[in-house]
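Hey,
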Amino acid sequence: MPCLLLGAAARCTNVVLVLSMLFCYLQINDEASDRVLAVEQEFNKRRRPIYRERSYSLSRIPGFWKKVGPGFRVQDLVTHAVGSLALRLHVVLYSLITDCSML
């Protein structure tokens, strides 16, 4: 019976180590996300006048969106976005697996 408890304790220790690594990874990821968000907000402030000018220029062209709309294929963008997301998820999962195997 003591051997079974010892094995369970070792498994619990491994689980705690993996969970602490995941928590550390998520904390670092949150900090990086906050920094990226701050940079994106700064550049969006700088781009705002350009977007306003572009919007104003396009609003002066009669029927602009009706002319360019039919040639725009949303399905190509969605397919590309899903593929990109799947690739990023694969990279994250692979890095987590390889980091956990170093324990």
